[in-house]
C-alpha cells in the first residue's frame, strides 16, 4: 500500500472514530506526570527475575507495544508471580538470551520448550526453556482497575485474539487509531 | 515502629533502592533510591522496632556528626519514610 493512501486511510479512520476515541480516552485514567527513573531493561528485569525466583511477587510497569491491546506501554503494570510450571496462554517474564528479557505470551509448549509471542506482534516469536521463565502475570493493573489474569472474560478475549491472528495487523491498525 | 512487610533494600546498578513486593503492596508503584547514610540506617533497623532516637544514635555512632544535627536529620528522614509509606507503627 503506498504511503499516501495509508495516510489518507489513517486520517479517515481517526475522523470516523473520533466520538468513540474521545469516549475511550475519558474512560482511561490520566497518565501520571511524576518523573520516572528508568534503569536499563536488562539490569532491572534481571533484578525483578531474581526477586521472583526468591518467591517475592512484584509489580512492574510495562514498556513497549508488543503486548497490545492487553497491556499498554507505560500505562499499565503487571503483577508477576513465580509458578512451578507455565502453560499456553500465560503472559510470562522470560529470559530469551543473556541479558535479554521479554514479557510475552506462551503460544506453544513442547515439553520444556516454549514458544512466545507478544500479543501486539504479528510474526516474530521467541523460544526459550521453561526454566528461563521467572514469573507469570497474575494481575493486569490498569489506572482505574485491577483485572485478575484468570478473569473468564479476559481469558475469552485473549483466546479470541489468538484466533484472529491472521487479521491481527488490521485490528492493531484500528486499535492504534483509537488509542 | 518498623518497616512495612514486603519493603526491601536491594542494590541495583550501584544504587541502593527500596522495592515493595507482595500482593499487599500491589498499589505501591514507586522505587525509592537511598543515599549511603540512609541505606546504612535502613540495614541497621531492618526487621526491628525503632524510633527516631534509634536512628539518631546510629548516626552518632557511625558518623562524625553532633547530636542536634543527627536528631534533626533522623527526624527528617523518618518523616519522609512515613510520608512515602515505608514504615508502620
Structural class of chain B: alpha+beta
Helical residue percent of chain A? 25-40%
* Shape estimate of chain B: globular
Order of helices and strands of chain A: HHEEEEEEEEHH
Characteristic key phrases:
heterodimer, A: 2 domains, eight-stranded antiparallel β-sheet, B: 89 residues, alpha+beta, Arc Repressor Mutant, subunit A, 3 helices, globular
Describe, in plain words, how this protein is organized in 3D.
The complex is a heterodimer of chains A (179) and B (89). Chain A is α+β, with helices and mostly antiparallel strands and 179 residues long. Chain A has two domains: 1-29, no CATH class; 39-178, Umud Fragment, subunit A. Chain A contains four helices and eight strands. Chain A has helices at 3-27, 41-53, 152-163, 168-178, and strands at residues 58-61, 77-81, 91-97, 100-110, 113-117, 126-129, 133-141, 146-148. The radius of gyration of chain A is 17 Å and the shape is globular. The relative contact order of chain A is 0.16. Mean pLDDT of chain A is 84; it is low at 19-35. Chain B has one domain: Arc Repressor Mutant, subunit A (Orthogonal Bundle). In chain B, helix 1 (36-45) packs across helix 2 and helix 2 (52-62) packs across helix 3 (67-84). With 89 residues, chain B is of the alpha+beta class. In chain B, 44% of the residues lie in helices and 21% in strands. Chain B has helices at residues 36-45, 52-62, 67-84, and strands at 2-3, 7-12, 15-20, 32-34, 87-88. A three-stranded antiparallel sheet of chain B has the order 2-3-4. Chain B has a two-stranded antiparallel sheet with strand order 1-5. The A-B interface holds A 37, 39-40, 43-44, 47, 51, 56-59, 61, 77, 79, 139, 141, 146 and B 6, 8, 10, 12-13, 19, 21-23, 26, 29, 31, 33.
